Amino acid sequence: MKTNPFVFGTVVSDENFAGRENEINELTRDLAGKTSLIIFSPRRYGKTSLMFKVMDELRKQDIVCVYVDLYPAVTKEKFANILASSIAQAKSGKLDDIVQIIKELIPPIKLTVRPEEVDVGIELELSKGKEDIDANLTKLYDLPERVAKKMKKKLVVVFDEFQEITKLDGQEIETNIRSKLQQHKNVSYVFMGSQRHLLNQMFNDKNRPLYRAGKPFNLSRLSEDEFSQFIKERFKADGINASKEVISQILALTQCHPYYTQQLCHEIWNQCISQEKKNVEESDIEQAKEQVLKNQNYAYTSMWDSTKGKQRALLHAMAISDEKNIFSTDFREKYRLGASSTVARAVEYLEKKGLIEKDSSDYVISDAFFQEWIKRIS
Ligand SMILES: Nc1ncnc2c1ncn2[C@@H]1O[C@H](COP(=O)(O)OP(=O)(O)OP(=O)(O)O)[C@@H](O)[C@H]1O
Ligand SMILES: [Mg+2]
Question: Which fold has domain 306-377?
Fold first, then answer.
């Protein structure tokens, strides 16, 4: 049985990854040159997948890469543990070296090495008292630089889902990271995450410790050219022809959003295979769209239910109107949205929920299929 070549919802790599050549080059160059980066983008634009590619490139240059996923960092203790074990698991170089440094740095830790696993697994058990954790954390912040020096290599540390630290300890972690960032000579850092408004507050507010702590990089959607070529090739590999016209219709519908384009193509491919079609037709796009809406109906219902009053009115107005400036008097009056300040409050809520996002300068509904769903219920 053939496997669907359009993948969504997980990190994509190898033949599942499209384009981004310019981005890969720029980010690799910056990081190899010791520039730290803050990557901003709306959700599901492909930050994590892109950064995995960049780390592959950096490793080719003998740079040690550490990927730290902070999503599970629900306590400070977990944060410390994740940080230590991510560094210990940096693939390049000898594992023993790194483990030895960690042992020297934070002596009474239990260390379980599971080399029998494909990815060398390491678990660190740090002592649990609050002071111990703070003391360990302080030392851990220095670990990347120590490892870099010991290995005589450059190091890149990628913090993904970095906004999670704001839920842990006020601004203490931010302050500590900032001071290390300035001292570290052999390490560059990447800060990124899926909640842009929190990262914005952290890196663009003058009063926060990490204000402008790196070069901002705004990741946009894939270009039409990159996506067209990818879609064409992926269908072709399974003997299906997708014409230029059909592909531009697909991309017009998804507006080149990486995740939603893959989601739609995934359904189109399913249809073509089950009906043994050799060509993608316009009607397939329509049918696939219906299928996506059907699959997502439950999720969309709960997204809709999570809004009320003016938030819901705004979401609805944005779905049915072409107006780009949602704060304009005309728009607010036509859809009875109230004063600008009321709209601003609704925007803040909807953005926090991830239902709308700022794309260049305008707010849009994040999920084009959700927009279609809203249009239909009214
Ligand atoms: N370069 C790409 N080529 C093809 N598909 C991509 C690409 N980048 C992203 N995608 C699609 O988008 C989905 C989300 O990618 P990824 O998880 O890397 O994004 P993200 O920005 O890290 O998301 P989140 O904001 O949820 O952390 C992938 O599963 C894939 O379907
Ligand atoms: Mg991600």
Answer: Arc Repressor Mutant, subunit A (1.10.10)
